[in-house]
Amino acid sequence: MTTKYVYHFAEGNRGLKDLLGGKGANLAEMTNLGLPVPGGFTITTEACRAYLAEGAEPKSMRDEVTEHLARLEQQMGKNLGDPTDPLLVSVRSGAKFSMPGMMETVLNIGLNDTSVRGLAAQAGNDRFGWDSYRRLIQMFGKTVLGINGEHFEHALDDAKRAKGTTNDLDLHAEDLRGVVETFKGIIADQSGREFPQDPREQLDLAINAVFDSWNAPRAVLYRRQERIPADLGTAVNVVAMVFGNLGMDSGTGVAFTRDPATGAQGVYGDYLQNAQGEDVVAGIRNTLPLAELEKLDKACYDQLMSIMEKLERHYKDLCDIEFTIERGKLWMLQTRVGKRTAAAAFVIATQLVDEGLIDLDEALTRVNGAQLAQLMFPTFEEEAGRERIATGIAASPGAAVGHAVFDSARAEELAATGQRVILVRRETNPDDLPGMIAAQGILTSRGGKTSHAAVVARGMGKTCVCGAEELDVDVRGRTFVGPHGVVVKEGDLISIDGTTGTVYSGEVPVQPSPVVQYFEGTLAADADPLIAAVHRLVAHADSLRRLGVRANSDTPEDSDRARRFGAAGIGLCRTEHMFLGDRRQLVEALILADSDEDRQRALDALEPLQREDFIGIFAAMDGLPVTIRLLDPPLHEFLPDLTELSVRVAVAEATNRPDPDAVRLLAAVHRLHEQNPMLGLRGVRLGLVIPGLFGMQVRAIAHAAAARKRAGGDPRPEIMIPLVGAVQELELIRDEAEVILREVAESSGVEVRTLIGTMIEVPRAALTAGQIAEAAEFFSFGTNDLTQMGWGFSRDDVEAAFFSAYLDKGIFGVSPFESLDTEGIGRLVRIAVEEGRAARPGLKIGVCGEHGGDPDSVHFFHRVGLDYVSCSPFRVPVARLEAGRAVVSAEGSDSR
Amino acid sequence: MTTKYVYHFAEGNRGLKDLLGGKGANLAEMTNLGLPVPGGFTITTEACRAYLAEGAEPKSMRDEVTEHLARLEQQMGKNLGDPTDPLLVSVRSGAKFSMPGMMETVLNIGLNDTSVRGLAAQAGNDRFGWDSYRRLIQMFGKTVLGINGEHFEHALDDAKRAKGTTNDLDLHAEDLRGVVETFKGIIADQSGREFPQDPREQLDLAINAVFDSWNAPRAVLYRRQERIPADLGTAVNVVAMVFGNLGMDSGTGVAFTRDPATGAQGVYGDYLQNAQGEDVVAGIRNTLPLAELEKLDKACYDQLMSIMEKLERHYKDLCDIEFTIERGKLWMLQTRVGKRTAAAAFVIATQLVDEGLIDLDEALTRVNGAQLAQLMFPTFEEEAGRERIATGIAASPGAAVGHAVFDSARAEELAATGQRVILVRRETNPDDLPGMIAAQGILTSRGGKTSHAAVVARGMGKTCVCGAEELDVDVRGRTFVGPHGVVVKEGDLISIDGTTGTVYSGEVPVQPSPVVQYFEGTLAADADPLIAAVHRLVAHADSLRRLGVRANSDTPEDSDRARRFGAAGIGLCRTEHMFLGDRRQLVEALILADSDEDRQRALDALEPLQREDFIGIFAAMDGLPVTIRLLDPPLHEFLPDLTELSVRVAVAEATNRPDPDAVRLLAAVHRLHEQNPMLGLRGVRLGLVIPGLFGMQVRAIAHAAAARKRAGGDPRPEIMIPLVGAVQELELIRDEAEVILREVAESSGVEVRTLIGTMIEVPRAALTAGQIAEAAEFFSFGTNDLTQMGWGFSRDDVEAAFFSAYLDKGIFGVSPFESLDTEGIGRLVRIAVEEGRAARPGLKIGVCGEHGGDPDSVHFFHRVGLDYVSCSPFRVPVARLEAGRAVVSAEGSDSR
């Protein structure tokens, strides 16, 4: 049996996106719904794959095109390129995923030196005929033959100049006939061949050009960046032409079945009389609100309304459509499920539930965590008087206000005086890092979503607008100039909206997110439609999800907040955070201790402080598990900086003011200095090398838990050992800890069940998880370190240095620190889950890296069967939503 | 069916080591050979496992012991503890692997207050009877009841003091009877129970004590360190006592069937009249050479010779034995395959082949690469006049001579003036690292094979003797004092032998290794028996091995040497080594380049230099593959040190002598500074971020190959991309390289087949090897980086900081940088081999980390099916030998 390569629209349906592409599948769906779709057929992605593999279209495909073309001609009652009444077709690419960088459309195929006259005669409009022919040659030359479009544009400009005009409409039929001749000359000159007069040859060449465009460099790059498989191929749609530019009874428009900005019910769209789609895009004339069409052509308007209602009920979602009216007859050119804002997504999803179109499970698939996260950022108040200067690319969300500064040093300086600053640069590079850290937000005039500024800002969770190309940034002059001559000087206040990309002059008041206020408990669930929708969908996600959601928190205050946000415990309490600040001296003394006595003194001083820390957290999380990670700092975080100290000592010597304390300290810092602190004496290694350190922490935990329990509380401590690479490390610490837990239980007379488990953050731990599980009551993945070690790069060093290059080159689709690299690092996770549970059935497994709050990663963690994710308190609602969505999502689908 | 827990000696054989332990299996073997072995039986390791699991011996085991004891009594014609003629037995532990730290032996079980008189009467020697009883109580108290041995020693000393003597032999029967009473008192006081008079109770308690000793802390630690499984358990041997101390017609001895030092044929041993084994160990009297026995007791001597010949023919190897003569009757107490020196191992193995006892395959299993490596170190000349000061632990082999220095700073100072130094310390710590690097060798008076000094010296390949406890090191006084009052002061010449542990005063002349001279081609293969043996066995290994052996070499000189040593190409040519020295300025300019022009200028200057480098190496390796790794330095290796430069700038400022050049450079160094250079901008990342860098190297390789080929050579370049973590990285560099290779082929008119492959050194590369293989023509494992990233520790930082602690605690059996961690890192290797070959059948795979020359690791690489190993030229013969041994070794066995 030969493969079927071509589907008439009536033969397809929207389920065949893989084969027919998005556009083709939806055209088929509309055809089968009985909607007025121009005739046409779709050549499959499979044909494309065969073409690309063999360098030529399959023989049987050609025959099928012949057959389907004949059927189309019969259906339309015209023949392709017929001299007196030609059928014209458009050829449109249409892959499974919409893909900029591929050839998109060639219109008016079927016109040649003869049929152009037939078209003109049929339309009763010579100018229309020649203009259509001119457009065909231009598009064909550019997209099929690969001729630089400027040749055509220049020729058209010449023609206009000759007529003394700058408006296409002033060119008459005769002028356009001359342009056609010139264009044909360009084709011959530039491609070495004549413009093909045979309509079928035009069609075949256009189809092959669509196939070839699958491998155009920009398309390849886009696929790399978006992780779209390289071997899908594109479908090709061949559609009978209809014309919205045949007079004032014709026109073209776009519409949405609801408001895509707010989700409000009621259609929403634009209409342009006597125009084709490309004219709408070119923006030559202002469009009319769709409601005006009712006055212009009530029949068409009513038909359109009824179609839109039908489509929405059929697709059970907001649809956007493109349509054309040709001399009073409505044609549907495209539909798809429409894009919408985050707020609209929540509102529409619950509306559709109330309208009985979908159930709550389905509604969950219509929103996502990234949208919820967006709704949790503060925003600028919507009020009059905001002065927009420019709009760039929304690179990292949030609303930031500050004084404009133009270099990193100045940013640090002003920030040090307590001022808020916005760092403004043409583009950033690693030198700008200190300034980026000091700033409230970053604004650049160049670069896209993968530029250095964008990547680093997202990594820091800092507001960023990049690529605001309307701005002329003069770093030396410390000013930038906006498009309407607005000048902003150093120190002037500006406001940037990282969610929309808008730049404002002056201070725009910031309003807190009502969604956050709802989670905080200060706004009621029925305060407005958006909050009601969020409340309902998050609650439904909670009812479905299998993943628990905990928070990473090191203080009672954060723990309180996390609990309000819905955290079911603490997945990561980092004790090293408790060792900084005032206590740094004690820790320094501990590390530098020369004798057992000095060390013990330092430990004895720390223990009661640690105990109080834990009592507070156990109280905040009463009745819920609290996973406490024993100390895991790189050593140098507790010691003076080697370079600073060296400079101090050297300068003291050079100026004859010896500083013996500094000299002594320097010797110790030298001794403990590490080339690669990330790979040095950290975590369990420190615990094994500094006697008593982990023991002190375990004792503090045990006493704190006993104190809480005696006071009537319900503390649930879980002790977590960091950086374990071999089961022997864990066994040694575990043995020590168990002795201490028993001692405290005996001395206090209070027994608190305390789990002992381990981080899985060193690749070797994942690779030997079966052994490690024998000694661990739980696993918690530290996917940050696992990513750093698995890829062999440290976030601090490489994110700023080369991630933007890597994203641009398509090596990453997304930073592996943002979303877990499921192929590489995820494989370690999978191995550890499988083998850990095989060795210890029912082993409790969670994740406490930052990926725990990342939507894509949450789906992955659900799929591999983790028990919980733990993330920053702020991300808890996002994780709850995504954990529910993961249940209703199909296996393997992502969260976007 | 109940399990059989006890085997009479006649029921076992040497194949049952797992069940009967080494000692028991060999006693059984000798029994079945008809040799005069005292009667006895072995309780199995399985019984031990059951005992340890259940906390009591299995009921049926007790019954079996009863039965076998009866059989033994019948065989010996005496009953255990019989009042008039008691059978006495010894209880000896015997695990599969010899294990210090376990209870070893209790002698004379069966004696009590009554039977002691029977024994005395039978022996006709009261003193013998009471001394035997005294020994039983002492050993039983110490090893079975766990009483501190000092109690007994003090009591014995008291008795001697009372007699005014220091010699046991001056204590008469009556004195010893008093000692027995005192000892019984000690037992009662210390253990709270009477010394058991029931012989069977003595026996049962001793058996259980052996079982318990399996889990003694020192035994547990030893197993951890030696990677002996914790669940094997030990066997227990119960053997009828024979006495070598019944008069001058009795005695005891040890013997080897050949000289274990040189391998020379002919027996070799010691004999001590009227003594028991423990007396030989105590060294109270001087032993006689074995040949003397012929004069003392010709019959026994002849019988012994015949037995030894029989044993050697039976075991087909050098055996060592222990024997006792009781009143003119010879008894064999133990035999096993004997330990020998490296040289003896090679000589004996080939002798046995010539004697027709084994074939060459078997001979290969009798030697190993560690022995061959030992033979390749220079040694001290064997001549009169060497003054031995002390002997410590042979921690890292080699022969080093230098001036004694006592601290790190002084070592660096003297070394800087061109002097050779030996760093002498009580023990070393990370502070001593610079001095250790500066020194020829390291000598310490404390610490064992896993001490800091030993671990770090082995890591550096530097000679080290540690734990020379006879030395009294006075670091402040800058002297050390030897056992005979020898004083060595700072600056005095000393010589240390890291292969034997010997310390000499003065300069001992060093002689080069004859084995190396043979490989170098300056000594003939028949120069002496050792070289002939090495030649023959390495040649046999070559004929068997499936693994190729290449060398790591960056210069024509090293490449020449590697080829003489048998390397079949270069597996790793590190181009960063070519970038140091004079060219550092150019590289610095390249890295700091502000503009494309500056960068290109630096690249243009480097290209011809690189080209010459490669031409030389291709010439040395003509006709053999040369794998060239593109640049992979941590960035900071090419830049001035941040701290030094900061000090320079600060001091210049503080002293009002501004240094604008340094200020500018400092800014750049700051910009490029990395927290963790190991995890920073290295390898392929540098190649992707610095335009033209890798291209320049590829062009230099291509031109060098073309030049060689035009000159009639046969260059076989293989281009290797370092630090790849994702296939996309490789694809990008590969595309660039292929364009350049084509360009050079066209411009030079010479086509050189050039493979392009990748290092697998980042864990993620191993985890996604299936994808990477699509773009790689070969893989080469960089197991150093794979180990660093897989374990999450950097060698530089952690080896000195905590490896000795980790080895002591048994977390490692051996440093994972010495021998590949086959469980964790080896798993990554296995995954990459399997999935790489699945994606690209026949993919060529090698390893070029230092593990390529490590014996254990070579076996692993053979097992997982690599094509070749690559190691330093010096290790090439070792790798050849081990690659052959891997073929004849049983699956899963190690190389030791």
Verbal overview:
By secondary structure, chain A is an alpha/beta fold. The first copy, chain A, is 47% helix and 17% strand. Chain A contains 35 helices and 33 strands. In chain A, strands 14-24-23-16-17-18-19-15 form an 8-stranded mixed β-sheet. In chain A, strands 26-27-28-29-30-31-32-33 form an 8-stranded parallel β-barrel, surrounded by 6 helices. Chain A has a 5-stranded antiparallel β-sheet with strand order 1-2-7-5-6, sandwiched between helices. The longest helix of chain A has 25 residues, at 596-620.
Are there runs of chain A of 5+ residues with pLDDT below 50, and where?
Answer: 891-896
Euclidean distance between termini CA atoms of chain A: 38 Å
- SS element count, helices of chain A: 35
The helix content of chain A is 40-55%
| Percent in strands of chain A | 15-25%
Please give the most extensive interface between any two protein chains, plus how many residues each contributes.
A-B, 61 and 61 residues
Oligomer: homodimer
Strand neighbour order, sheet with most strands of chain A: 14-24-23-16-17-18-19-15
Number of E-state strands of chain A: 33
The value of Rg of chain A in angstroms is: 33 Å
Largest sheet of chain A: 8 strands, mixed
Shape of chain A: elongated
- Give the class of chain A from helix and strand content and strand pairing: alpha/beta
